[in-house]
Structures are given as structure tokens and as C-alpha cells.
Design goal:
Blueprint (H helix, E strand, L loop, with lengths): L3 E5 L6 E5 L2 E9 L3 H14 L5 E8 L5 E5 L9 H11 L4 E8 L6 H19 L2 E5 L1 E9 L3 H10 L3 E6 L3 E9 H12 L4 E5 L1
Antiparallel strand pairs: 1-7, 2-3, 3-6, 4-5, 4-6, 8-10, 8-11, 9-10
Helix pairs in contact: 2-3
Organism: Flavobacterium buctense
Protein name: YigZ family protein
InterPro entries: Impact, Impact_N, Impact_N_sf, Ribosomal_Su5_D2-typ_SF
């Protein structure tokens, strides 16, 4: 069972690709939702306020993937899909790649644009630090304080990550575990007396 995916650790350094006086600046960002994507695009629009096109593609998710490719005024499918093709060929997700174009006065034609956007996206991804992450499932464990030792023993033995915890009369601990171990962890907690586990 595959329970890992590739993404990038940090935003990539800015790259510049030139073609017939047009300049293509390339950026890759790690993202987990559309709100983050919006923020990066807004920042780039401020940074390059005289640029003509902000073309991008992103892919989100690990098991169910969502993606979008945007040509931002370039001929249909000349920019966004060229960028998305590079995201696919690098095998990364939870990523946004943006190519900012300054028009240099000479038209490149659709073929030229496809090549330019593909190359700039490839250069941005080559500069990025690609890392492997595990697909983690999160669970909430609810129990009375008297059962604390039982719960903590399992967490320690199974090397589970505690995301956060609330300790009072009744206690709740949010844990994360790798997808491939999830079923086993649920079984263990489900079989413990007076302890509830639910996926969140």
C-alpha cells in the first residue's frame, strides 16, 4: 500500500527563462489549499505589477487529486497545461507553479509559448527541493483520565505523533499515524475498554 507522496520542502528560488525578448520568471511553492494559492498569486502580482501574464498550475491532495491549469490570457492550453505537465512529470503534489511573463514585443506563437512555459516550469521544479512525505491519517481518542496510562502506552509503543491534547476529567488526544498503520491502530484502541477513537 503506497502511503507516501512527493512534494517540495520550500518555495523554489526565482528562475528566469528568456525567449525572443520575452522574460519568463518561474516559481514553485508548497501549498495545501486554495487560500494559500491565492496569497502567492497576489504577492507575485504586487512584485511584478507590470507583467502581462501570470500563468499557473497547481495540484492538491494525496489520494484524491485536484488540479487546475490557468492560461491567464495566453492562447488556450499554451501555458497552464504546459506547466501542469511538468508537475506530473516530476511526480509532485501539494504544489503551485507560477510563470510570470513579461512580453518582449515579439510574438512566440502557440508552439513557442508551449515550449517556453514548459521550460520555465521545468527550471523552477529543478531548483526546488523535492521531498517524500507520508500520507497520515488523524484520529481523535477520547477517554477518562483514569485510562491515561493505557492510552499513552499505546502511543509510545506504536510511535504515534500527538498533534494536540486536552486533558481534563475526560481527555482527548489527536494523533496522526501513517496510512498503512491506521487500521491496526484503530483496532488496538477500539479493543481497549472505555476508550473511543474516531477519524477526523
Amino acid at each position: 500500500m503506497k502511503d507516501t507522496y512527493n512534494t517540495i520542502a520550500l518555495p523554489s528560488p526565482e528562475i528566469l527563462y528568456k525567449e525572443k525578448n520575452s522574460k519568463f520568471f518561474g516559481y514553485a511553492y508548497p501549498v495545501t489549499n486554495e487560500a494559500e494559492i491565492k496569497i502567492h498569486l497576489e504577492q507575485l502580482r504586487k512584485q511584478h505589477h507590470s507583467a502581462v501574464h501570470f500563468c499557473y498550475a497547481y495540484q492538491l491532495g494525496t489520494e484524491t487529486l485536484t488540479f487546475r491549469a490557468n492560461d491567464d490570457g495566453e492562447p488556450s492550453n499554451s501555458a497552464g497545461m504546459s506547466i501542469y505537465g511538468q508537475i506530473q512529470s516530476f511526480g509532485v503534489t501539494n504544489i503551485l507553479v507560477v510563470i510570470v511573463r513579461f512580453f518582449g514585443g515579439i510574438k512566440l506563437g502557440v508552439g513557442g509559448l508551449i515550449t517556453a512555459y514548459r521550460t520555465a516550469a521545468q527550471m523552477a521544479l529543478e531548483e526546488a527541493d523535492i521531498i517524500e512525505k507520508t500520507i497520515d491519517f488523524h484520529y481523535l481518542i477520547s477517554f477518562d483520565y483514569k485510562n491515561m496510562n493505557k492510552v499513552m502506552r499505546v502511543i509510545k509503543e506504536k510511535n504515534l505523533n500527538i498533534i494536540n491534547q486536552r486533558m481534563a476529567e475526560s481527555c482527548q488526544i489527536e494523533i496522526a499515524t501513517r496510512k498503512k498503520n491506521a487500521e491496526n491502530i484503530v483496532d488496538i484502541f477500539s479493543n481497549l475498554f472505555e476508550i473511543e477513537i474516531e477519524k477526523i
